[in-house]
Amino acid sequence: MSKPFRAKSTLEQWRIFQAVVDYGGYAQAASQLNKSQSSLNHAVSKLQNLLGIQLLEVKGRKAYLTPMGEVMLRRSKLLSQNIQELELLAASLEQGWEPQLSLACEIIQPQAPVIKALKAFLPESRGTRVEVIDTVVSGADDAIAEGEFDLVITAHLPKGVLGERLGVVTLVPVVHRNHPLAKMPQPVSIDEVIQHVQLVIRDTGKNPQQDRGWLRAEQRWTFSSFHRVVEVLKQGLGFAWLPLHIAQPHFEDDSLVELNVSGGAAKSLVTYLVVPRPELLGPAGQHFSKLLIQHCKTLR
């Protein structure tokens, strides 16, 4: 069995080395660190002797990095950053700050506000890891019922479950501009629509709900994401109900068009933020949930 590695250098030596470089010399670094210049000289000299390489060379009153010093400086700063993050994480854990957060997000939820919330959360995250998993239809129900996620964005509130309203998502029937349905006199009837292939997103729940969503077409092709559905639509195949925020860019470039279906076919769904286990949600989760609500409300 090999002996465990024991470092020859210390973090303090690396910190002094970084300071000498950052402040442009031993005298300047000594002033900033409130140490004597001789102690800094001694620390860097000992570090170089331990490593067997020259990190700095002094010209006049200024210290310059050697090529090897440049490499070691970059790596040592990563080391210092990791130590800082480690200590911050320890302090956060002591305060009950969660090391990891998980969000189950219904696939129809607009991603822009979620990404903005993540961006706002990052500087304050204290090293918390965030996992975002897409769910479809009853997949969100499972995420709420099983309590395996800290936060859930859903378009359906199960019986007895409360949620914070985030916004409204409109779904519209969409086809390629050259699809036969788009060439027919508008509006088209439901009977005409269901003669064509419907492109749908797979329900991620353990027990898929057949009574949710518009699934009247006899022939259906199932996909895992709206991205794939859009690519198939652009090939002139089938029709699909798409969230308006996903379809809009393709309406603007005229590759896809909204079907005018007699009787109206647009559907609106409200999305909610649910906390499956409120008593277990720590300060990180509470803060992130506030950011989600804040950024989603800006789109209303």
UniProtKB/TrEMBL annotation:
Residues 10-66 form the HTH lysR-type domain. Transmembrane segments: none annotated. The keyword Flavoprotein does not apply. InterPro entries: LysR_HTH_N, LysR_subst-bd, WH-like_DNA-bd_sf, WH_DNA-bd_sf. GO terms for molecular function: DNA-binding transcription factor activity; transcription cis-regulatory region binding. Pfam families: HTH_1 (PF00126), LysR_substrate (PF03466). It comes from the Bacteria. Keywords: DNA-binding, Transcription, Transcription regulation. SUPFAM superfamilies: Periplasmic binding protein-like II, Winged helix' DNA-binding domain. Belongs to the LysR transcriptional regulatory family. PANTHER family: HTH-TYPE TRANSCRIPTIONAL REGULATOR, TRANSCRIPTIONAL REGULATOR-RELATED. This is Transcriptional regulator.
